[in-house]
Amino acid sequence: AVGLSVLVPYIGAAVVTIPIALVGYMQWGWNNDFFYLMTVYGIIQALDGNVLVPLLFSEVVNLHPVAIIVAVLVFGGVWGFWGVFFAIPLATLLKAVIQSWPGHTGHD
């Protein structure tokens, strides 16, 4: 489930956190082990969502990693959940339209 959560940036990670927190709570209760688990999981999710996924998706869709992060923030801000869900395809579409626009020199 954590691996599939990257398909929907930010929201997928939040949804998958719920079962992890429940399992951790049932295993240890409200003690330090539970909070260590959630801290480490949060760090991993932050690195995955903000570093690893943009780098990997940038290779696949030929967009700069910062453009992917900006697209998620902008489209998410405009259209909420669906904007976040479709941010990368919309950014790729926008790039294709800009590159095919008459008078564009073709430089990235």
Question: What would you note in describing this structure?
Answer:
- The structure is a single chain.
- The protein is mainly α and 108 residues long.
- The N and C termini lie far apart (35 Å).
Briefly say what this structure is.
This protein has four helices and no strands.
Q: Percent of residues in helical segments?
A: over 70%
Give the CA-CA distance, first to last residue.
35 Å
Weakly predicted, low-confidence segments: none
Radius of gyration: 18 Å
Main sheet summary: none
Mean pLDDT: 82
Number of discrete helical segments: 4
Query: How much of the sequence is in beta strands?
Result: under 5%
Principal-axes shape call: elongated
Order of H and E elements: HHHH
Structural class: mainly alpha
Number of E-state strands: 0
Characteristic key phrases:
single chain
Secondary structure: elements and pairs:
Layout: H1 11-28, H2 32-61, H3 65-85, H4 87-100
